[in-house]
Predict the structure.
Amino acid sequence: MNCMVNQQVTIGWANGGVPTIGNNVWIAAGAKVLGPITIGDDVIIGANAVVVKDVPSHSIVAGVPAKIIKRRNHTDEPWITIK
């Protein structure tokens, strides 16, 4: 597992469970990852995002609550923007 966690990040219990975090995940400063959710592989969680739902692999999420802002099908593909 390769996970980078910046300062003031909360990974915590909520709604009866804790998050499961995949490989190659970056959780930026101030983000909150809460509850019995799954964070996929190759995910970036933006600064101050509040993640309370599953995040699929190869995604970038941001916002309060967090939503997918970019996604790719495989790590060899370039990032595409979700509108």
About this structure: The two ends are 30 Å apart (CA to CA). The mean pLDDT is 90.
